[in-house]
Amino acid sequence: MATKKAPMREDQRRVHEAAVPMGRMMIQYQRELSRCEEVFAAQLRPLETEVFDDYHEIYWKEKAIEWNNMLLAKMAERKDSFSERIDMAQERDAWLQAAQRRFVDGCSALKTVTSADLAVLRKQVNPSPMIKTCTEAVLELNGEMDTDWEAAQVILADSYFLNFFVPRACRYDIKQVSDEILQNLDDNVKNPDFQYERVMKLSTPCAAFVKWARAIYDYAMIDRIVKVKGLEMADLEAENKKAQQV
Questions:
Q1: Model confidence pLDDT, tens digit, residues 201-234
Q2: How far, in Å, are 32, 156, 195, 208, 217 from residue 99 at the CA level?
Q3: pTM confidence score
Q4: Measuring CA to CA, how many Å separate 132 from each of 6, 122, 127, 188, 209?
Q5: Selection from 173, 111, 110, 181 nearest residue 139 by Cα
């Protein structure tokens, strides 16, 4: 015998009547949200890139300000006996060694790339813009004049990549990165998708390229910040003030 369902109390009935249209509204909201994301995603992308550009620039300005503040503190401590080369040697070495460890990590990533990984990448007839960005960065660092996809196919050949490119890349002189190369890498590094984790979803070799290239860029930037400039206290304070105004 079926159990007779107890009638709803008045308060239960009101909650039920309110919940039904609310559920329908939530479903409609999710549909509209998905539609808006599809329509406007492409339009929002340039905004994300612009914001990332600002973040990139601010990050390196803050690193320069941080270093200048360390210099100012050491100047105040040492006074007339202050020597930028000697008194900042420990801090300078610490910053450069941290950047060098990232380069070693980048080399380790290159060494994990297999022939199978390279074969998958070479098969791409029309690679995505990000894949091309990664190979262009590597070709620029490799000193190549031609950085198109056809040129990339050369370094992606098993024998060249495994036997020549990787050993040479791991011997790259990160202390001698020219201003021209740094400027060429700047556009790549500013790209919000030029990140190891993001590129790994597209290609293992390209993710390794990103880690290696970004490490070289970071070392070059740190090297320029911490190099001995022979600035006086007033110069450093003026530099900080100018950077903070931007």
A1: 999 999 999 999 999 999 999 999 998 877 666 6
A2: 46, 27, 16, 17, 9
A3: 0.73
A4: 67, 12, 7, 11, 11
A5: 181
Residue 193 near residue 165 (C-beta atoms within 8 A): no
pLDDT in tens, 97-136: 999 999 999 999 999 999 999 999 999 888 999 999 999 9
Q: Which residue has the higher pLDDT, 132 or 4?
A: 132
Cβ-contact 121, 157 below 8 angstroms: no
Distances (CA, A) of 66 to 63, 218, 239: 5, 16, 11
